[in-house]
């Protein structure tokens, strides 16, 4: 016999009940544990983004250039590496890229990768492939690889100081972190970022190009990757962070995502590496125009398309320092 005490994982029989009778406070402690333990499990940091209601993982996606690192010194270093390897100055390559773009106007869209490779090929042909063993690559492919490797290497050196602490805090709290970029930045080969960024999509990717930001296609590609990693598909559980009003804020909000406009001080001005005609369209709501109408525009052929209207970001920040607290405080309140 013996009295039976209900328990979420079964029952307690006579022996356990006798022990509780001998210790009058045990029953109260046991019942308290039944009530409190599930809440403790649900509110542990690693499960915060999922919660007890069966919600999916909270997603925070980032633009890359001028969001996680400054693009102008990064591209300058990559151009310098090509010059040291081949003698082709960055300004010369840039002019040739503009020429290739003008000549291809009205034809099939040209990715920025193709644009740079074609410019390098034409310049190598024009100089007759001068060869100095060990110092000058023989093909445009070699030079492009040199450029791309230096681009990512310099990005690692110049990652803003608030980025890694922000990503680490988001990851510790269970967020799913991704990157959505029009350019060729690659978090998987940037050592300080690789441990945190779980998915990324580029406007240069097959299946995405030429649908760059602000096209919804690139965001939908990111959403498919996030769903495979635990995102519920609920737009309100996704925050997108970037420095461009059109490409990051308006485009993401059109899909129902939450947005953060990152306005780092000192980044206003024209992009010296753009291969497109300058435009007067302001990039940041009401601020001085910076670059042209496409973000990551050192890596852009302008295939993203326009946006219907401007809107206001959910949040505007000058740095990423407060982002993790803001994101998770908002989710808790809701």
TrEMBL record:
<feature type="region of interest" description="Disordered">
    <location>
        <begin position="266"/>
        <end position="314"/>
    </location>
</feature>
<dbReference type="InterPro" id="IPR023214">
    <property type="entry name" value="HAD_sf"/>
</dbReference>
<keyword id="KW-0378">Hydrolase</keyword>
<feature type="compositionally biased region" description="Basic and acidic residues">
    <location>
        <begin position="284"/>
        <end position="293"/>
    </location>
</feature>
<protein>
    <recommendedName>
        <fullName>N-acylneuraminate-9-phosphatase</fullName>
    </recommendedName>
</protein>
<dbReference type="GO" id="GO:0016787">
    <property type="term" value="F:hydrolase activity"/>
</dbReference>
<dbReference type="InterPro" id="IPR036412">
    <property type="entry name" value="HAD-like_sf"/>
</dbReference>
<dbReference type="Pfam" id="PF00702">
    <property type="entry name" value="Hydrolase"/>
</dbReference>
<dbReference type="InterPro" id="IPR051540">
    <property type="entry name" value="S-2-haloacid_dehalogenase"/>
</dbReference>
